[in-house]
Design goal:
The protein has 13 helices and 14 strands. By secondary structure, the chain is α/β, with parallel strands linked by helices. The chain folds into 2 domains: 280 residues, CofD-like domains (Rossmann fold), CATH 3.40.50.10680; 39 residues, no CATH class. The radius of gyration is 19 Å and the shape is globular. The structure holds guanosine-5'-diphosphate (GDP) and calcium ion.
């Protein structure tokens, strides 16, 4: 069964790691957000692609969520002693090898799609990983700091450097309007028997993908076969800053709010919610969505596989 998944970083990585316990990874195409990509120390860093790669390869740090297990940060410590530009962005020593390898491939003329495939192959990842686009797209956050000054921040500056302390006014995806989907991405959605929207940050991870022309229409055309997993459980994200970003788009911070945000654009047919959110089911069904409930906290691969099984069932139940 051919499956396409739309993914951000850590929430998606955990979920997809569960998915490949129950389906053959060779049937899976994952389309990953690149709005967080950044040049650091001259290197092309793709945080969400790396998270998904590391989770699928089984080398992710489950506690920290991002980066690799058994990681050290000696290079970053030295760069901080140098007061190097961008050294606020912690890069592990093993992770650094990925960025060096990617940057070298791209300097030699490879597109991000090709570099991503090469990295996935080196990690033994059998699923096909695609960046959302080969074009540069950057998620920028318009914010106001405590002194009342307006800021225009790269998403990573907002989140990592400044610890999400600023008041967010809006989020923009610079370059998205003139970008095109990575080769094969729209075809993967069009031909999949199930399309899964991973439990990722709707504003910071999924919206950048939807901002690239073609993706929203491709999903809408297959909406009955699209099932999402709520990243919001019990009225709060399990990690990250979705609670700060959702209200800026007028979205209620709940499993029902996010469901409405996607359903309002005709993007999904099914929505998986956590058992703690049972009371929201009637509201979600009133949006015209099929729902299923399970414990969606992915504490280990087994739990993630259970969530994946439910999402897959919901997508397939959408018929043609
Ligand atoms: P990034 O890794 O920072 O790029 O962020 P993501 O786009 O992956 O967003 C993290 C989202 O994943 C947050 O909204 C979390 O609530 C969600 N998430 C993380 N772990 C889990 C989990 O175990 N279950 C569910 N349902 N959501 C999760
Ligand atoms: Ca991310």
């Amino acid at each position: 069964m051919k499956i396409a998944a739309v993914a951000g970083g850590v929430g998606a990585g955990k979920f997809l790691r569960g998915l490949i316990q129950i389906v053959s990874p060779t049937e899976l195409t994952v389309i990953v957000n690149t709005g967080d990509d950044m040049e650091v120390h001259g290197l092309h860093v793709s945080p969400d692609l790396d998270s998904v790669t590391y989770w699928l390869a089984g080398v992710a740090d489950r506690e920290r969520g991002w980066g690799r297990a058994d990681e050290t940060f000696r290079a970053t410590e030295q760069l901080r002693e140098f007061h190097a530009d961008g050294s606020w962005f912690g890069i592990g020593d093993l992770d650094l090898a990925t960025h060096l390898f990617r940057t070298r491939l791209m300097a030699a003329g490879e597109r991000l799609t090709g570099a991503t495939a090469a990295i996935a192959e080196r990690f033994g990842v059998e699923a096909r990983l695609l960046p959302m686009t080969d074009y540069p797209v950057t998620t920028r956050v318009d914010a106001v700091d405590q002194a009342g000054d307006t800021l225009d921040l790269h998403f990573q500056e907002y989140w990592v450097k400044r610890g999400a302390r600023d008041d967010v006014k809006g989020v923009r995806f610079v370059g998205a309007a003139t970008a095109s989907p990575a080769p094969g991405a729209l075809e993967a959605i069009a031909s999949a028997e199930a399309i899964l929207l991973c439990p990722s940050n709707p504003i910071a991870s999924i919206d950048p993908i939807l901002a690239v022309p073609g993706f929203a229409a491709a999903l809408a055309a297959r909406r009955e076969r699209v099932a999402g997993v709520s990243p919001i459980v019990g009225g709060a994200p399990l990690r990250g800053m979705a609670d700060k970003l959702l209200p800026t788009a007028g979205v209620e911070v709940s499993a029902a709010g996010v469901a409405a945000y996607y359903a309002g654009r005709g993007l999904i047919g099914g929505w998986v919610i956590d058992e703690t959110d049972t009371a929201l089911e009637p509201r979600i069904e009133a949006l015209g969505l099929r729902t299923l409930m399970t414990d969606t906290i992915m504490v280990d691969d087994e739990a993630a596989a259970r969530v994946a099984r439910v999402a897959l069932a919901l997508a397939v139940a959408g018929g043609s």
